[in-house]
Fold each of these.
Amino acid sequence: MKEICQRLRVPMFVKPANLGSSVGISKVRNCEEIEDGAGTGGPIRPQDHCRTGHRGREFECSVMGNDQPVAAVPCEILPSREFYDYEDKYLLNQARVVLPADLTPEQTDEIQRLAVACYSAVAARGWRAWTS
């Protein structure tokens, strides 16, 4: 845990690797919180995801397709809480989604390019239509 605190700046976010969507994400404000399991209900494991928090706008950009992935139009997320957590995403119905996001064409292209690059880097697969 000390190594994580030395390598990443706080605040940081911790996401349990075996839970879906935004389940279990916690914000770590200091190294003592990461030592205590960062609100994850137990010790942080090597497979969990830790990343430094950044101030800025938050965007979502879906990617569809398998062999030829295509990015959708990006949207901007305006959370109703400190960050876009599980409750804000699924339970409170107070976060706002701006679609399309207020971006220049160049910014839109870059987000779409990065979304497809990430999708391809992890060998993600989307919905596939099966025909008989």
Amino acid sequence: MSDAGTPNTPLAVVLLSGGMDSCVTLAHAIERGFGIAALHVNYGQRTQQRELQAFTDICEYYGIGRTLVVNISHLAQIGGSALTDTGIDVPPGDPESARIPVTYVPFRNANILAIAVSWAEVLGADAIFIGAVEEDSSGYPDCREVFFRTFEQVIATGSATGSSISIHTPLLHRTKADIVTMGIGLGAPLHLTWSCYQNNTYACGTCDSCMLRLKGFAAAGMTDSITYQP
């Protein structure tokens, strides 16, 4: 597939963490006919190297040549999250909790979107795709629809290209089961993705991200093909 936008093929910057949601979002953008520029951000997270491997594997799978990997490890220096601070334990998942979990990285999506907008301006991209999920996620405040619509206003106000860059959130109101089914339907390489918050070899199966993923596969009547800790 082509990774370049043309007059007949709009270009999208796709935020590709290497997780299942971002992979399905990428598959959706490709299915919609967008040329792809894949952006990955290392921010000092525990599974940084494993997520980068997943990003590389997914890009190779789709033949994406236009890629950018950015380091914003200052988020780890700032701390305040179990994903970036090894002094804070990653807790077992608690789907019933209404509190924002300690795995929330303060204002992470705003930092990542700002980078995506900068790259989109230079590339002349029409859209930014992000695999955020609001209804069946860990309750992060920067994964809500109001956040993304407000950020679009920031783009329109503060960028040279103005409102020509839109933020696409195709998974925002889907459940994990919906996402699994959608991914399989699109032929997304879910076996190459990595969702675990704390392990790099075997997925722990107990953190919020693993539990939501496993719940999604079970509800969809599918079996997850990645390896979980015995």
